[in-house]
């Protein structure tokens, strides 16, 4: 079975839609900034249209970017993660923020839990390894859990 095109029912060309959504996804721009950038290139599209495209097609593009990035990072010989935990207060209660960062500084995963134990740490690591594969080096701050 062939995969159907996500651009099937749009009148605008897929290249313009991809450019607008990728500008919004990839760079910290507002919808109106993307509208201005496209206007400078001679493409007249409103920010509401770009928001509609993002709502409909954003998840497709994000999964493509994430997949390509993971493939590149797995091919990289020094695939390294830094895992740390931070104490945070949410509504006056103490919670634990678990975070995994790769060697480029990109946050791979962050999880907030009420408990600080081995089980919650392993749960986060299993989830990471399912999504991104196994790192060559895992750096921790020697947290007790």
From TrEMBL:
<comment type="function">
    <text>Involved in the transposition of the insertion sequence.</text>
</comment>
<dbReference type="GO" id="GO:0003677">
    <property type="term" value="F:DNA binding"/>
</dbReference>
<dbReference type="Pfam" id="PF13610">
    <property type="entry name" value="DDE_Tnp_IS240"/>
</dbReference>
<dbReference type="GO" id="GO:0032196">
    <property type="term" value="P:transposition"/>
</dbReference>
<keyword id="KW-0233">DNA recombination</keyword>
<dbReference type="InterPro" id="IPR032874">
    <property type="entry name" value="DDE_dom"/>
</dbReference>
<dbReference type="GO" id="GO:0006310">
    <property type="term" value="P:DNA recombination"/>
</dbReference>
<feature type="domain" description="DDE">
    <location>
        <begin position="79"/>
        <end position="144"/>
    </location>
</feature>
<dbReference type="InterPro" id="IPR047930">
    <property type="entry name" value="Transpos_IS6"/>
</dbReference>
<dbReference type="InterPro" id="IPR052183">
    <property type="entry name" value="IS_Transposase"/>
</dbReference>
<keyword id="KW-0238">DNA-binding</keyword>
<protein>
    <submittedName>
        <fullName>Putative transposase</fullName>
    </submittedName>
</protein>
<dbReference type="InterPro" id="IPR012337">
    <property type="entry name" value="RNaseH-like_sf"/>
</dbReference>
<keyword id="KW-0815">Transposition</keyword>
<dbReference type="InterPro" id="IPR036397">
    <property type="entry name" value="RNaseH_sf"/>
</dbReference>
């Amino acid at each position: 079975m062939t995969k159907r095109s996500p651009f099937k029912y749009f009148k605008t060309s897929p290249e313009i839609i991809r450019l607008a959504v990728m500008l919004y996804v990839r760079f910290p721009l507002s919808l109106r900034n993307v509208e201005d950038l496209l206007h400078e290139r001679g493409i007249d599209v409103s920010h509401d249209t770009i928001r509609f495209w993002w709502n409909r097609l954003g998840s497709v593009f994000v999964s493509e970017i994430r997949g390509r990035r993971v493939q590149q990072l797995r091919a990289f010989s020094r695939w390294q993660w830094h895992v740390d935990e931070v104490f945070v207060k949410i509504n006056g209660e103490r919670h634990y923020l678990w975070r995994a960062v790769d060697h480029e500084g990109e946050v791979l995963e962050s999880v907030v839990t009420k408990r600080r134990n081995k089980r919650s740490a392993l749960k986060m690591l299993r989830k990471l390894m399912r999504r991104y594969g196994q790192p060559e080096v895992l750096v921790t701050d020697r947290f007790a859990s």
